[in-house]
Each structure stands twice: as structure tokens, then as C-alpha cells.
Amino acid sequence: MRIVHVADSFPPDVGGIERQVEMLAGAQRADGHDVSVITAVNKPPNGDAGGLDVHRGLRVRWLTIAFPSLNARMVAQVLDREPVDVVHAHFTVASPIAVYVARAAHKRGIPVAVTVHSVWWKVAVAHRFVTWVFFGPAPLRPVYSGVSSMIAGHIKRTYPREKTVSVVPNLVDTDWWKPTEPPQHQTGVPEFRIVLVGRLKKRKQIDEFIEIMSRVKAKVAAGTPVSVSIVGAGPRRDELNKQIEELDLGDWITLLGHRTPEQIRDLLHEADLFIAPSRKEAFGIAALEARSAGVPVLGYRFTGLADFIRSGVEGLLVEDQDDMVDTLAKVLVDREGLDQLKTSTRSHSPSVTFADAMEATYAFYRRARQELGRG
């Protein structure tokens, strides 16, 4: 197939969506497909890795965001160079270049498959309004997918006429993360080792988790040995360090900064619990990596984690912040229960694998082509 991906954000920008689009394009290229990427990120093409065919927007990036039609010539060159089997548009809350390319493809009779990567429900009206203001009422009839069942539900509420919304999970090499040795049992008074991986940005709600740990510390016996390692870089590092100091959590929580995937894997293989603190987690790439590494995951029931975490089997899913506080406080005094949960997590294979995600993607493309009569 000839596949064209379009995403407003792409490497060298850092984030889950950027990483996913690059991985998917690379995997499809390895499968023998002709793959191109269109993005608003305007770093010169010589910065692209892996030999991907990447077409970047205007040098002044905000012009692409505000006036994506200024890239009409570049978009036409990509779409008209050779017949395109499918355009895969990756949507977040606002995705001007992705919407523009999807409409350009629609006008050419090219099947359009849209994957939504972000929590949409609370911004659905805003998304539709902004799309109408920027692009007018011109028709666009793609097929839709979400990265999780939760996001698929948001799409159905945003576009109630959509009878079918696929679930196309994010790509995680679950085999690469899995442990190769049996868990090591600590002697003496075991330290409870918690890991959190995420960019230090507001939407990751790490500040709320630090507040949760302050409440947990007040509930357990003084001197309870706890080590919380927060992996990730970002603009809120100084602010979070200050919060840790003010809440007297310096003996519990450490901001480790950036770590390589290999270093994160080693850290997870020694961990007791992984925390997914965001209440707006569309999928949970880091959580699936941790779960694949044999670490139980603690997160919220109403997020994308529910697609691959069974509460009591591979982790613990809670309803709200109060529930997370109570759950953590109980786990900290129940080492036997925690060990059983770790054993259960390691003994079950992840329900979402790399192969599953690739097959779901190709099935999604087949649906896009069938609905346009290209099946």
C-alpha cells in the first residue's frame, strides 16, 4: 500500500503521539509499504531518522497552524505523486494540518482513516467549532478510531452518526520490556519501590500525585520505607521539586530526570508498583510498558488503562483521588498482597501487544477502503 500519515506534531518534538506516528510509519515501511509523513513540525528534513519520507510545513510553524492551506502545494505534491491507498490522520484536540490534509484527500477520493489520540469529550464542541471556523462546512467522511475504548466512546458522543468506531491501540513492544529473571525478594524490612514515568507537564498531573503521596504518608506509620522514582524531563521540574520540599517528601520522592528506555526498563524490573497519575490518560503507553515489565499498575478506572489493566490481576484501578490515597495506604502495609499482585502480573501476558496494534491498524485501513468502495 501507499500510506500517507499526517500529524501536526512529529519528531524532533517529544511526546507520545510523536513517538507513535514515527514508530507506526517505520513499522509499516519495514512491512514493505510506501510510507510518507506530513507534519507541521518544520525542522529541516536532514533531521529525520530511519529513512522516513517526511514532508514538513512552513518554516514559521505558527503559519502552518493558523493557515494550513499555505502548505497546499506541498500537500498536493505528496497526494498526487502516486496513487494513495489511505491517508491516516492523527487528531488531538486541535489538529489544523491533519484536518486540512484529510479534507484534501477526501476531495481526491482517497480513503481517510482518523485516529484520535487525546481525550475529546470535554472539548468536543470546541473541536467542531474550531474546525468549522477554519475550514468551513465542507464535507469530510472518514472512518474513525480511538487509541482506547474510552476514546472510541468519546468519538461516538462527538459524532453520534458514526455507527462504527474502531479501537487502534498504540504500539508497545511488550516482549522487549518483559523481565528475563525471576523477581528478587528483599531481605529485612523491604523498601516499597514506586515508579512513575512521564513528561513534567501540567496535563500529566504529577503535582496531584505528589499531593496524594503527602496524604498517604500521613496515614502510614512513621519511618515506613518508601522510594518513589519519577522519571521524565519537562518545564515543571523546579516547581515540582519545591512542592516535594514543602510537603516534606524529600525522603520519599526523587525526580530522576530523563532516562533512556534501557535505564527505565532496569528501573521497572526492580519496582513494586507503577503509578499512572493522569485522569486524562487516553491510552497509557508508559503504563503498558510497566505492565509488560511485570509491574502492577495503579491508575484510574475511567482512563485508557482499562483496556489492558484488570484490577486485582495486573494492577489496581481506582475511582478518584481519595480512592487512590486509601489504596496506596493499604498496599504499603500489605506486602504479601503486593507480592501476589506482582506474581499475577508476571504470569499473565499483556492483552495488547505490538502485533495486535499493527493488525488493528491494517484492519482499520481495510474498513476505510471498503466504506469508500475501494475494498
From TrEMBL:
Residues 181-346 form the Glycosyl transferase family domain. It comes from Flexivirga aerilata. One of its GO terms (molecular function) is glycosyltransferase activity. InterPro entries: Glyco_trans_1 (IPR001296), Glyco_trans_4-like_N (IPR028098), Glycosyltransferase_grp1 (IPR050194). Residues 14-175 form the Glycosyltransferase subfamily 4-like N-terminal domain. This is D-inositol 3-phosphate glycosyltransferase. Keywords: Glycosyltransferase, Transferase. GO terms for biological process: carbohydrate derivative biosynthetic process. Pfam families: Glyco_transf_4, Glycos_transf_1. Signal peptide: none annotated.
